[in-house]
Amino acid sequence: MRGKHWLMISLLLAAADQALKLVFKDAQAVVLPGVLALHGTRNTGAAFSMLSGSPWLVLLASLLLIAVLVIFAHRMRQHRLLSFSLSMIFGGALGNLADRLLRGYVVDYLELLFVQFPIFNFADILITLGAGLTALAVLRLPGEKA
Q1: How far apart are alpha carbons 85 and 91 in whole angstroms?
Q2: Domain spans in the chain, listed from the N-terminal domain onward
Q3: Which of 25, 32, 55, 95 could form a disulfide with 14 if both were Cys (CB 3.0 to 4.6 A apart)?
Q4: Calpha distance 84→138 (Å, rounded)
């Protein structure tokens, strides 16, 4: 992506995440019976509530991830798929970091009812999809064949 397009996309995704969290932070509703519910919760840890007793460690890890993403995205900006996938990860990381800095916890609200799985949010979806697309993009990068 040219210039700072990856950054603009990231900021738009982070803003969308924050808007959704404002709307669903106190939600308690079944959207699709047996499939999906909105259940606003507070997550003081990282992914799947890991490290919930160590908020400073989670914050430090988040800041480190964001710094690495900025450097990597800047260097890989000529690769569209990779740049877009990193924008997704960066946007999700920014959304969750904003929660940690402003609230002291991350708002999660999406609950899958058909499987035992932690409650999650839009930022988590962005990070997960972005990681998958990053793997795909890296596999497609031109380079030496083994």
Answers
A1: 10
A2: 5-140
A3: 95
A4: 12
**Burial environment of residue 107 by CB neighbours within 10 A (0 to 12, 13 to 18, 19 or more):** buried
Is there a contact between 135 and 58 (Cβ–Cβ < 8 Å)? no
Which amino acid does the sequence have at 86? L
- The one-character DSSP state at 78 is T
Which string of DSSP letters, residue by residue, matches 1-47? Answer: --TTHHHHHHHHHHHHHHHHHHHHTT-EEEEETTTEEEEEEEE-SSG
> Which residues form the catalytic set?
108, 124
pTM: 0.81
Looking at 76-126, which runs of residues are DSSP E strands? 106-112
Q: Among 49, 41, 43, which Cα is nearest to 109's?
A: 41
Q: Are the C-beta atoms of 91 and 123 separated by less than 8 Å? A: yes
Nearest to 130 by CA among 99, 95, 102, 105: 95
For 17-63, write each residue's pLDDT tens digit.
999 999 999 999 999 999 999 999 998 866 555 555 566 676 777 77
